[in-house]
Amino acid sequence: KYLSSRITGLVSPIMNSSSFLLTGFSGLEQQYPWISIPFLTIYALVLSGNCMVLHVIRTEPSLHQPMFYFLAMLALTDLCMGLSTFHTVLGILWGFIREISLNSCIAQSYFIHGLSFMESSVLLTMAFDRYVAICNPLRYSSILTNSRIFKIGLAIVGRSFFFITPPIINLKFFHYCHSHILSHSFCLHQDLLRLACSDIRFNSYYALILVIFTLLLDAILILYSYFLILRSVLVIASQEERHKSFQTCVSHICAVLVFYIPIISLTMMHRFGKHLSPVVHVLMGNIYILFPPLMNPIIYSVKTQQIRSRMLRLFSLKIY
Predict the structure, then answer these.
(1) CA-only gyration radius of the chain, Å
(2) What is the CATH number of the domain that holds 296?
(3) Domain enclosing residue 189, as ranges
(4) What b-and-e string marks burial along 94-121, b requiring 16 or more CB atoms within 10 Å of the CB?
(5) Which residue ranges run through the membrane (predicted)?
(6) pTM of the shown model
């Protein structure tokens, strides 16, 4: 409380009504140069890892298959997620950025939430891909044609960014009369609602319905697809074929866990962890943003034989 009141006192003379103070690791300002090193390393791994996955899929003709097209969508989403926050996170740690304008804040929250919904949609599509490949292999190529994959990609982008537009635009017309201190190193829709003095009922209910019909519905459909896959695999007589079928799903299951566990943890923390240090909230927010983009290239490089062998070949060419 003391720290919050002290920051509020500092904010009022230097900030105008259309800007907000970004929150770093409060109390650790002297260690920011050291804290920036692991964050810079993580962002470099996020950008290089996802770019490498995209490069491998683009340049290797044998990877021009539905499964890897969807993986490319996931890598592109993760790459954009990293790009959407690195300037504010590293800007705070390097002392370049302290506040953010309302318009920039709204734009950043639009991309963060849109990309989160997009990642959920891509994971659902990848679950459908595994379902068709295992449960209906003879019709796999006829169901997931290139034109159909392109249409699925357009539908994912439309679903992710179209439906979040009304509440995000609405943020522009709110009156913000509370202390303009955000809870994280980046902007989120719920953070701006907390600072608004206008009627936020539309945004609150709309956001809740949106989460239910995107993140929650996607999670239920992913679970259901794996129930169908499990039921189909268990009737396979050969133990070797069962193992091979399950092995093709391991990478996707890991990606789903990597995406949903941070979201659930952050939600639980916002609901039940109000007594925790602000540093813990900031750290969990960064884990929510950075953990999936960091881990997905590693998961698919290790668990997917085609990606792994192509990357090893790429590194060997660079070495020689």
Answers:
(1) 22
(2) 1.20.1070.10
(3) 28-317
(4) eeebebbebeebbebbbbbbbbbbbbbb
(5) 7-28, 34-57, 69-97, 109-128, 149-169, 205-229, 249-268, 280-302
(6) 0.90
